[in-house]
Amino acid sequence: MNHTKSEKTDFHVVAPSERVMSIDALRGFDMFWIAGGAAFVMGFFRLFANPLPPWLGGQFEHTPWIGFDFWDIIMPLFLFIVGVAMPFSIGKRVERGDSRLSIYRKVASRVVILWILGMVAQGHLLLFTLGNFQIYSNTLQSIAAGYLIASIALMEMPVRWQAGLAVALLVVFWALMRFVPVPGVGAGVLTPQGNLAMWVDTAILGRFRDGTNYTWILSSLGFGATTLMGVMAGHLLRGPKPKERKALLLAVSGVVCLFAGWLWSFEFPIIKHIWTSSMVLWSGGWCLLLLALFYYVIDVRGYRRWSFFFIVFGMNAIVAYIAPDIIPFKAISHTLFAGLATHLGLFGNFLLAAGTVGILWFGLYYMFRKKTFVRI
């Protein structure tokens, strides 16, 4: 590959580094919730407080429109952690001398596979019924969009420009949503059915839209920005700074992003459903703080044993994401434990939730022990 001096700096300033285990652990932490962790944790809390206090139970549900709860971090964290890994994965290909064309082929194949898997998971592809088919409706497809944008930025731009692109995507999305009028509605409307992003999805996807108040096409700008925030964190982790300083910079960056997102929310509210720019900054701030915590505890302080549970999820993240849509782990858990659960009261519900997560985890653990890792 032909690189300018500045481009080489992005990938060649440091020697190939050891695996950053906190990335796998944080990815697994995210997969845990997707794979049924919410029911497991809520079941545990109900052993001590049933019913759960509203402030706690509400954290395991998506905010209806404006606002942000714990459950809303799951999707942004998935995109963010994909971005964190990109300077390592693409950087490794650059270092071993892969051609630009071969790297772009790999990027294209990943985008296509993620898109198809997204249609399997939530687009009803396997029903083979055109009336139920949804083209763009899933987290994996948002990752495909963010990954494509971030990959081009990584390949074609120095780090400084990559950061600038993330900012530009947020500003462009804000400007479109604020100043471009929706036919029959007007400009700057941010209601579930009156916003520009929803109008674009409805106009382009038509009958193949998912029918929710989530938006995808214009929101892809925000998906790219979230992924690029992860890329910036990945550059930092891959760089030569001392580990303690990396953890500190991640934490400080997280606080700055939280403040910026909060400040912007007064003009452009935090709405995950349309992936507003303020939401990108707010969720990105939490993602950075989580990464700082995991990195400090696991890679700086060396406390790794506790993270093995999450690493098993993280090393086969695609399997952990897709498997629950194909294999009825909840039904299997009920088949195995429902009889016993009826005699255990609240602990019985906890047992059923633990069984749902545990059956998947042991399957992933078997793959881990056999060194079988599904990569895209």
Structural notes for this entry:
With 376 residues, the chain is mainly alpha-helical. It has one domain (5-369). The protein is built from 15 helices and no strands. The longest helix is centred in the N-terminal third of the chain and has 26 residues, at 21-46. The two termini are 23 Å apart.
Record keyword descriptors for this entry.
disordered N terminus; mainly alpha; 15 helices; 376 residues; single chain
Count of the separate structural domains: 1
Give me the Rg, rounded: 21 Å
Indicate the low-confidence ranges by residue numbers: 1-16
Spatial shape: globular
Which percent band covers the strand fraction? Answer: under 5%
* String of helices and strands: HHHHHHHHHHHHHHH
Distinct helical segment count: 15
Distance between the termini: 23 Å
Name the average pLDDT.
Answer: 89
Oligomerization status of the protein chains: single chain
Helix content: 55-70%
Number of DSSP-assigned strands: 0
Q: What composes the largest sheet?
A: none
- State the secondary-structure class: mainly alpha
Task: Describe this structure in a few short sentences.
The protein is an all-alpha fold. 67% of the residues lie in helices and 0% in strands.
Set out the fold topology.
Blueprint: H1 5-12, H2 21-46, H3 54-57, H4 74-95, H5 100-121, H6 139-156, H7 159-179, H8 196-205, H9 220-238, H10 243-265, H11 277-300, H12 308-315, H13 317-326, H14 329-341, H15 346-369
